[in-house]
Amino acid sequence: MKDSTCTIVGPNPSKLSAQIDYHKLTQALEKEILTAISAGYTIFQSSMAMGVDIIAAEIVHKLKREFPHIRLHFYLPCETQANNWSEHWRERYFNLCANADDVFCLQKSYSNGCMNRCYRAMVDCSSRLIAVYDGVTAGNMVYIVRYAKKKSLDIILINPLDF
C-alpha cells in the first residue's frame, strides 16, 4: 500500500502571498496528481488543513469520477480541527469528510505538535509527497519536507511563488 500512496500538503491561506493566482496553483496541483495517477498511485492523503490541503482533496474528489479506482484518505490531527474556521472553509471541510474513502483522526482535541504528528503519520505510509512549498518560509512545510526526505520519499515541490 505504501508504494501506491501519495500525500499532498501545503500552507494555509495566511502563509501564501495575497498575489497568488489560485487558479494556476490549482492547475499545477491537478497536473501533479494526474502524473501520480499515471505512475500508479491510487491512494491520496490530506490532513484537511485549511488552504492547499483542502484544495488538493477537492481535486482528488473530482478526479474520482474519471478514475474510480483512486481513494481519498484524510488524516485529521484532531476532531476539533475546523472548529474556529470561517463558514466557507468549514463547509468545504465537512463536505469532503462526508465523501472520504477513509478518515483517520489522531486525537480528540488540539495540542501542540498534533499537526506534525499528523504529517509524520501520513509520510510514514506514503512513498510520494506533493508539497506546495516555496523552499524558504519556515513552519510546518519545512518540517514535513525534511521528514519526507529523511524517509526517502519521492518529493514533488510546487513553488507557490511561481503563480
Q: Mean pLDDT score, rounded?
A: 93
Order of helices and strands: EHEHEHEHEHE
User: Biggest β-sheet, characterized?
Assistant: 6 strands, parallel
Determine Rg (CA atoms, Å): 14 Å
Q: Residue ranges: pLDDT <50 for 5 or more in a row?
A: none
Structural class: alpha/beta
CATH class: Alpha Beta
- Gap between N and C termini: 33 Å
Q: How many strands in all?
A: 6
Q: Helical stretch count?
A: 5
**Proportion of β residues?**
15-25%
CATH fold node name: Rossmann fold
Overall 3D form: globular
Oligomer: single chain
CATH architecture name: 3-Layer(aba) Sandwich
Largest sheet: spatial strand order: 4-3-2-1-5-6
List keywords for this structure.
globular; 163 residues; alpha/beta; six-stranded parallel sheet; 6 strands; Rossmann fold
Characterise the protein shown here.
It is a single chain. With 163 residues, the protein is α/β, with parallel strands linked by helices. The chain has 5 helices and 6 strands, in the order βαβαβαβαβαβ. The chain has a 6-stranded parallel sheet with strand order 4-3-2-1-5-6, with helices on both faces. Strand 2, helix 2 and strand 3 form a beta-alpha-beta unit.
Helix and strand arrangement:
Layout: E1 5-9, H1 22-38, E2 43-46, H2 52-63, E3 71-76, H3 87-98, E4 102-105, H4 114-124, E5 128-132, H5 140-150, E6 154-158
Parallel strand pairs: 1-2, 1-5, 2-3, 3-4, 5-6
Helix pairs in contact: 1-2, 4-5
